[in-house]
Amino acid sequence: xxxxxxxWRNLLNRRIQTLITIGVVAVGLAVTLAILILSSGIKQGIxxxxxxxxxIVGSKGSANQLVFNTIFLMxxxxxxxxxxxxxxxxxxPRVAQAVPFALGDNYKGFRIVGTDPSFFELRGRPAxxxxxxxxxxxxxxxxxxxxxxxxxxxxxxxxxxxxxASAHGVVAAAEPEEHLDHSYTVVGILRSVSAPxxxxxxxxxxxxxxxxxxxxxxxxxGIGHEEEDEGIRGVTAAMVKPNSYxxxxxxxxxxxxxxxxxxxxxGQTIAKIFDMMGSGEAVLRDIGYVVLGMAGFTVALSLYxxxxxxxxxxxxxxxxxxGRRAVMAIVLLESVLIMILGCAIGVAGGYALAGVLAGYMxxxxxxAVPVGFDREWLIFIGMVGLVGTAAGLFxxxxxxxxxxxxxxxxx
Amino acid sequence: xxxxxxxxxxSYSQQGGEPLRVLSIRRxxxxxxxxxxxxxxxxxxxxxxxxxxxxxxRSTEGTIRLLGKTLEDTGEAELDRxxxxxxxxxxxxxxxxxxxxxLENVLVAMRFGSNLSRSDRKGRAIELLNKVGLGNxxxxxxxxxxxxxxxxxxxxxxxxxxPSLVLADEPTASLDLANAMRVFELLTNACEEAGAALLLCTxxxxxxxxxxxxxxxxxxxxxxx
Lengths: 411, 225
Ligand SMILES: Nc1ncnc2c1ncn2[C@@H]1O[C@H](COP(=O)(O)OP(=O)(O)OP(=O)(O)O)[C@@H](O)[C@H]1O
Ligand SMILES: [Mg+2]
Fold this sequence. Notes:
The structure holds two protein chains of two kinds. By secondary structure, chain A is α+β, with helices and mostly antiparallel strands. In chain A, about 55% of the residues lie in helices and about 15% in strands.
């Protein structure tokens, strides 16, 4: 009969207590681990989603807003860049490519993005394949042809050849004011990129302008929309690929020093957002650590709570010839078994919890949150196991020192 | 002599006072296979003596020689092995490990003190439990057994490693009369059959009277110093 088996039988004898202890360890570890997994996954997901966008140029205003407009398809759009400015920018010899990005309309809440075919040339890194690729159909050629993001196709059920009418504004209105005369025809559907772009509808700049000029006429004579319509010939933003790194830095400085526009590196902006999120994450992590601390405390308490019963067990074992070391090993093995089970269940639970939450998040904000693995977490899990086992060291030492004679006659 | 005790003293230190002498024995000896009843009032040191003989407690003065080994000169780890191999112990109550079945309780003792192979151990454990009338309760835990049945398991366990000496500390005190008699008979017969010496302490003078030799604590300490 092995010492491990004897420890196991002792644990089974205190079944409820053992289960509660394992449960507390598992829950504490699962919550903390899920927070670690998700916070790193969310960062990776956002960074991946921002990769193809390069430097973003938009009108002066909040950098966050510009990033939200373009990468996340969220937040109300900044004012438009003037067309002349955009033209000058795209013709600048230092610019290899300037992809327009115009917001203004929606279909059932999915934002319609006016752009040009170069949008489908964007890549994360120069060697990567294009980021946006068709799964069906073709790219838009003429006005009022639309390419749908994967989520749009899935959620609206629109198929190649279907037609839909856009509504003015970037959010769905209760009673949509549709551009009835001009409906779009679906010509292509994109592969999912597991990013907010999956919720975009991409059309040519022509359709965007025609639709809005039409809108101007419709509104003419009525209540003026001058303010809104003023910069209508223009774009919300431009994704700029420079010829070289030096050009990039020069452009960045020039644009930001000028008074017409701002240039933003999404990576930097997102890093700032992460910093803001960081304090929230730290709070969550602290909560996780508190839960874990309580778990450790529970292990110690449960092992301590069973010490009266254990003294008798120790006394019996000593009386039948078990050495101090054997007795100590049995008690220590009890806490090792609890920690192994608690950690195993906790790791499985942590990944399951992170998986469920990551799935929920990718559904809500269309960001693929990878549920990954970090060697640091292994160290963390190891630490938890070690601390729990150390909590078992005290009763083990107690058992080692127990003056067994005292507990033999206790009745 | 199998057991020889000479000028044995056990005392406990007290805060701000003389050490408390709880036991003082001038001479006591037992022959192999001998069955002795030890009687004496509560607090006279019966349990203390058994603990000293088993090597669970260390004496303050004097010597205990058991099977040619002087316990005072023996290290703790060796004493543990010696106890496992040569001494069987039965206490008043709470003899058994609560999480283990009757069979496992016997096997645990064999783990520490038997030189039998694994499979032989199980065979012997079952045989012993059969002998104490519990062949049909092998897989029951202490909580599923009566007090008397628990004592019978502990008798089987005490004999598991073919000890030379069985120490029994009021083994019948928590049993009703009928059960007490049965357990007592079982214990003495089993020891006789196994050729083990038995040192049994009890308050029960009638029970003591049934043993071949009776010793009172008072006699042992008389003229002690
Ligand atoms: N650790 C200790 N410290 C101080 N005194 C102790 C200690 N252990 C036992 N004693 C004392 O030693 C004396 C003998 O105790 P022991 O248990 O051997 O008596 P006993 O004859 O077995 O009594 P009973 O018949 O009630 O079981 C008692 O007075 C007891 O209080
Ligand atoms: Mg006693």
